[in-house]
Amino acid sequence: MNSPSAHESPSSPPPASGPSPVAMIARQAIVNAQQVVVGYELFNRSRTANTHTAATDVTLVFNALSHAGSEELVGKKLIFVNCTHESLAGGHLELLDPDKVVLEIPPLGHAASEEVATRTPILTGLRNRGFHLAFNHTVLQSAYAPWLPLADYIKLDLSVLAPDQLAVLISYAGRHSKAELIAEKVETAQQYDMVSTQGVQLFQGYWFARPSLVETKLLAPAQASIIELINHVRNQSSTDDIEQVLKKDAGLAFNLMRLINSAGFGLNREITSFRQAVMLLGLKKLFRWAALLLTASRSGGAPSSLGQTAVVRGRLMELLALETLPPEDADQAFVVGIFSLLDVMLSMPMAKAVGLLNVPEAVSAALLRREGFLGDLLTLAEACESSDDAAFNRTAGLLHLTSQQINLAHLQALAWADQLGD
Asked: N or C, which end of the chain is more exposed by having fewer CB within 10 Å?
């Protein structure tokens, strides 16, 4: 006997409400003397020229962390990020693993030495938190003496420095700092030979690699979901309450798991549930992330119909799993369900979508091949949506679930997902 609620569901997933938002980020490799890439400098190409502000810094970092494309922006390499002095105090830096990030600090122009002194505590604080700091050659001037001990990298721009100037600066930096030197805008073999023979070990420029443009794809959740999350965090709600908000918006859930797994976050462990992700991130970082996400999200209060289908599917699978599994294992069933439409949401093959997340093998096997207990649950959930009697009866039998159990769980899942708009 098939589930009557199955015939009330759509025969196929509804179309996505629109393409995922995109942002343009350019990256240029920084290589060592063996021409091995050690890091990438990122540039925000979504902004218009001459509009580098604290806001564009935040947008660049957020897009880099949330990038859901099939191509990794930086992998395990260092991230070099241009900053404004205003953005250096921004909460978005709380989301980054300092060991992975080099903050490029701009000079102050003709600022008086007291302004250098005023900004020194901020730079010192960043360095103490573990961030690497990079400066251009002006940090070698006497006015910037308080900053020189903070320099991990000093960039030498070959397009503005004459050969005799370079020789003086390289010698001075070697005697008065512990910074690694990066020759940038290296465009010819002659330039490379000139600086490498003087001891420079890192290089950036067209001679090695031109900036490549990456179209960063984002999966934007509904603003109402983000606001609800922010309110829960500000009220210091329980982990259970926060987890419920995440589980009701596929975009929100994906973005959090993507952040946890991003190179910039610096995590090297397997996260199997949203509860783990919330506890690992902590309320302070969760609030920072949600606030950034709100600025990048689409308008509108409800999640897309595709996201709604994923939420119902996840909850149905979780409820059915709870019939036979402990809660921590049932969490994986929810993860499989809510991420089972990622290929459609992100317009990419499921294998690439799953590759963006560090999910357990059982979850991966279910999503990619419908294998194992979780794979059977997913097949059953899909059968409920498509009114596929044969698949419904076969998987219900494999899972030892009755039509009554499935009907009740499906109705509960639909009602649970509908509470989002309440």
From this structure: C
Alpha helices in 218-300 (DSSP H): 223-234, 239-247, 250-261, 274-296
**Three-state SS for 217?**
strand
Residues 265 and 412 in one domain: yes
Count of CB atoms situated within 10 Å of the CB of 136: 19
Alpha helical stretches, state H, 349-401:
350-355, 361-369, 372-386, 389-399
Q: How many domains does the chain have?
A: 2
Nearest to 97 by CA among 260, 230, 269: 260
Domain with 28, as residue range(s), is 22-216
Cβ–Cβ under 8 Å, residues 367 and 339: yes
Backbone φ, ψ for residue 419 (5° rounding): -70, -15
Q: How far is CA 392 from CA 11, 379, 387, 403, in A?
A: 14, 8, 8, 9
DSSP assignment of 10-41, as one string? Answer: -SSPPPPSSPPPEEEEEEEEEEETT--EEEEE
Q: Does residue 26 register a pLDDT over 60?
A: yes
Q: Are residues 165 and 313 in the same domain?
A: no
Place of tokens 């360095």: 127
DSSP, collapsed to helix, strand or coil, labels residue 88 as: helix
CATH code of residue 363: 1.10.3210.10
pLDDT tens string 102-115: 999 999 876 667 78
Whichever domain contains 102, its CATH number is 3.20.20.450
> pLDDT tens digits, residue range 145-155?
999 999 999 99
E strand or H helix that includes residue 417 = helix 403-418
3-12, 153-162, 198-207, 385-394, range with the lowest pLDDT: 3-12
SS (H, E, C) 105-173: ECCCCCCCHHHHHHHHHHHHHHHHCCCEEEEEHHHHCHHHCCCHHHCCEEEEECCCCCHHHHHHHHHHH
The H or E element containing residue 411 is helix 403-418
**CA 195/CA 39 separation, integer angstroms:** 19
Taking the CA of residue 188 as centre, how many other CA atoms within 13 Å lie in the half-sphere pointing to its CB? 5
- Asked if 350 contacts 368 with a C-beta cutoff of 8 angstroms, the reply is yes
Query: To which residue do tokens 């995109």 refer?
Result: 22
CA atoms within 13 A on the CB side of 366: 28
3-state secondary structure of 309: helix
Residue 299: is its pLDDT beyond 60? no
